[in-house]
UniProtKB/TrEMBL annotation:
Pathway: Purine metabolism; IMP biosynthesis via de novo pathway; N(1)-(5-phospho-D-ribosyl)glycinamide from 5-phospho-alpha-D-ribose 1-diphosphate: step 2/2. This is Phosphoribosylamine--glycine ligase. It comes from Acetobacter fallax. Residues 107-313 form the ATP-grasp domain. Belongs to the GARS family. PROSITE patterns: ATP_GRASP, GARS. Coiled coil: none annotated.
Amino acid sequence: MRVLLVGSGGREHALAAALAASPDLTQLYIAPGNPGTALCGTNVAIAAGNVAALVDFARREAIDLVVPGPEAPLVAGLADACAEAGIACAGPTRAAAALEGSKTFTKEICDAAGIPTARWERFTDPAHAMALVRRRGAPIVVKADGLAAGKGVVVAQTITEAETAISDMMTSDKLGDAGHAVVIEECLVGEEVSLFAFCSGETAVLIGAAQDHKRIGDGDTGPNTGGMGAISPPAGFDRAAQNHALDLMVRPMLKEMVRRGTPFHGIIFAGLMLTTEGPKLIEYNVRFGDPEAQALLIRLSTDLLPALAALAKGSLADVTIGFSDEASAAIVLAARGYPETYAKGGLIAGIDDAEALPGVRVFQAGTSRNANGDLVASGGRVLTVCATAPTLGEAITRAYKGVGAIRWDDAVWRTDIGARALAAES
């Protein structure tokens, strides 16, 4: 099969590596890719958001399957454009991608389908939003209604923090159109986990689960980021619990989407909070997470390409997905200053040294080559150092040894990825 993978992050490097291992693959293109994906296939200088150019390329190169990585092209209608061109795409339509593109849409689906989630209200007037915060008190959650690259959620511990978040999103325009409307909801308490499934119509096939670590600092301090690390599988969330959550959170949503005439075909990533009252939905995403994909795919024991091809055809009857019994840990190395203004251009070395360690794999994200051909940092989240091992503790130790082998002066990372899970195990 000739495959076009869309995206340029660590998730896409992990997907590219998995696809490159398939005996069914004849050619892999990645648009736009990064220096890491270039080791798995051929990078193409087309932006992930340029839907028209992506479809033109796919048509010209006789692409059999388009695999979307990030959410933005899906919300922009990539799958719709592929369908019009007669090209298979393993992702949802623009209408179905509203599950991620609009927090309000997701909440309305939850209410209609009886899916447990936090109490919520939507606002387009900042004064009304602030009035609710003052009535409800803190902690409270403020979410930009639209896409904000993982930075549109503020878990405010004080009323002042919530008011600042509302002002930043709705008045200061820090998130652009994404923040012109906000959803304010109660703050759920518990362990947050990420559940993944292949979905088509009313059918859902479990992929697996991971646990992300969103905040920039140790001990879950500081602002939210796109994700600073992950473990898989999460402690206390085994396959039986994952299947139960699929019945509770995903299959009712799929039925409601079919009822509305916007069936979902693609990958669902359900962010869940494991509360004392049972699991509750935080949000839906319509693609693999990052860095959850890296933590999941490094454990993959089956061929990903046939599963994605079947997904694109809307038939999951023969889809099998399997993972090793080993645990995995993923540590994100970000640029100093992230998630605000961050350092760029620093030389990166030691990836080969890290990957020479047992069970370690490094996936690239915000990297590029300078004029001399050296690998340099060019983004906020730059590398994900992953490792597998028979136990979670060993996987975490291996991953941090991999981090220690990387030489990059501007790197920052959390030192406590998986610490809560280890404490729960013990």
